[in-house]
# Entry
Amino acid sequence: MLAISAFVFVVALMLEAIRKSLFAIIFNREGVFERMWGIAVHSIGSVSNIR
# Structure
């Protein structure tokens, strides 16, 4: 029972490390998030100006 608990804990730690790495790549890399946000705001602005 203890070995199963330890195994689940280690797997959860590895998944958390992968998640943190992916978020760091996506949101902290050379303003990728800011560029995506700018595109979204520009697209929404274009749609609202049509009316």
